[in-house]
Amino acid sequence: MAGTNASPSSLTPLHWLAVVTALVSAGVHLVLGIEFLPHWMGISFLLATGGFVGGVALFFANVRRPLLYLLGIPFTASQIVAWIVLGDPGGAYLAWEAVDKVAQVLLIGALVVLYRRES
Predict the structure, then answer these.
(1) Among candidate residues 40, 35, 22, the one with its CA nearest the CA of residue 93
(2) pLDDT tens-digit profile of 62-71?
(3) DSSP H or E stretch at residue 119
(4) ω into residue 38 within 30 of 0, thus cis?
(5) Who contacts 45 (Cβ-Cβ below 8 Å, separation ≥6)?
(6) What is the pLDDT of residues 71-90, one digit of tens each?
(7) Where are the domains of the chain?
(8) How far apart are CA 112 and CA 117, in angstroms?
(9) What secondary structure does DSSP assign to 8-31, as a single string?
């Protein structure tokens, strides 16, 4: 459905789940990015923040949503892979990491379902 209405009142609970989980992950990345600056990890967290916020902005602008969902899946999955590969950044962020990873797994699930429904 390329012509899906961009009005917030037309969004399903699944759309809102995707938006909220993307913003939760953006918020976690923003906090961690600020904490880690000027280290390269701080910069990478802030870039990820921009990716999540940019995705939400494009979603509300109704820009090629199926493609946005399709691109959001590997983008979000790469955040999980990077976390596994790089490990715990400093050890003091376990609660933030747990919230972020749960949000990201839910976001991937929502994006898969939305892609299948709307493409």
Answers:
(1) 35
(2) 999 999 999 9
(3) none
(4) yes
(5) 29, 30, 32, 33, 36
(6) 999 999 999 998 888 776 55
(7) 12-118
(8) 9
(9) GGG--HHHHHHHHHHHHHHHHHHH
One-letter identity of residue 28: V
Residue type for position 12: T
Look up residue 98 and give its amino acid: A
108: alpha, beta or left? (left if phi > 0; alpha if psi -120 to 50)? alpha
**Between 40 and 73, residue with greater pLDDT:** 73
End-to-end Cα, the chain, rounded Å: 6
Q: Check: CB of residue 26 under 8 Å from CB of residue 53.
A: yes
Tokens of 22: 């993307």
Distance from the Cα of residue 96 to its chain's centroid: 14
